[in-house]
Amino acid sequence: MQFHKTLLPAVLIKRYKRFLADVELPNGDIITVHCPNTGAMTGCAEPGMRVWLSESPNPKRKYPYTWELAETAAGHLICVNTQRANQVAGEALQQQVISQLVPLTQLTAERKYGYDNRRIDWFGLDADERETYIEVKSVTLAEGSQGYFPDTVSERALAHLLSLQDMVADGHRAVVLYVVMHTGIEIVSAAHHIHPAYATQCIQAAAAGVEFYALSCTLSSSAIEPLKSIVVSNQPITIEQNP
């Protein structure tokens, strides 16, 4: 996924009201930008962080800049724009990066499904022409090299798991695809310490046949590219933090 043009560097002053952040540009100007992330953004929004912004071509936008990337003290890049995960997932599926999801034909984004007509992020047909429903989740919470989802209690994510289990019960394939938007993360698991109900449901969903995969990415001020599959563990695990 290429950015429309190279991102603009800045320094984060603060994030507030969930969707707003103040940043300082290289010339010293302080502006307010759109923050496209409803989560806790733990470890992603520390004052003083280097950040990168995209500029909207829409002249009517109140805040023309959008916060896209942040850099940790250890030098890891994080994509804080959760909307990018679906785009990168689509590219990974088309490029056949995740071997367990090869091949998928008739790839379609935002397809309605289920009894309540909710939307699945990606839909396709596998080699056996089974309907395959893929729910994409953006992972940015890191503790050392361990990544966790979600970073806050998410009843929506819990409901998605139940819907995917319904698809398996109907004879289809159902997948949770964690798109890892943090270059320091090497393994992903459900955040038992943040949302125990979600973590428990992940274990139950996996037992019911829901598949869990994770995708790492390369991040830069010009592009976000799918890289490779990494390990998902839905059991409670602890990994030592990097020194």
Q: Give, in spatial order, the strands making up the sheet with the most strands.
A: 7-8-9-12-14-15-13-11-10
Q: Give a quick account of the main beta sheet: strands, pairing sense, barrel closure.
A: 9 strands, mixed
H and E string? EEEEEEHEEEEEHEEHEE
Class per helix and strand makeup = alpha+beta
Estimated helix fraction: 10-25%
CATH class of the largest domain: Alpha Beta
Summarize the structure.
The protein has 243 residues and is of the alpha+beta class. It contains three helices and 15 strands. The strands form two sheets. A nine-stranded mixed beta sheet has the order 7-8-9-12-14-15-13-11-10.
Structure report:
The chain folds into two domains: 8-79, Beta Barrel (OB fold (Dihydrolipoamide Acetyltransferase, E2P)), CATH 2.40.50; 84-232, Trna Endonuclease, Chain: A, domain 1, CATH 3.40.1350. It has three helices and 15 strands. The protein has helices at 84-94, 155-169, 196-208; strands spanning 8-16, 20-24, 30-34, 50-55, 65-71, 77-79, 105-113, 118-125, 131-139, 141-143, 146-149, 173-180, 187-190, 211-219, 224-232. The strands form two sheets. A nine-stranded mixed β-sheet has the order 7-8-9-12-14-15-13-11-10. It has a six-stranded antiparallel β-sheet with strand order 3-2-1-4-5-6, with no helix packed on it. It is globular and about 60 Å long. 40% of the residues are buried.
Task: List the topology elements.
Elements: E1 8-16, E2 20-24, E3 30-34, E4 50-55, E5 65-71, E6 77-79, H1 84-94, E7 105-113, E8 118-125, E9 131-139, E10 141-143, E11 146-149, H2 155-169, E12 173-180, E13 187-190, H3 196-208, E14 211-219, E15 224-232
Parallel strand pairs: 9-12, 11-13, 12-14, 13-15
Antiparallel strand pairs: 1-2, 1-4, 2-3, 4-5, 5-6, 7-8, 8-9, 10-11, 14-15
Protein name: Sugar fermentation stimulation protein homolog
GO molecular function: DNA binding
Family: Belongs to the SfsA family.
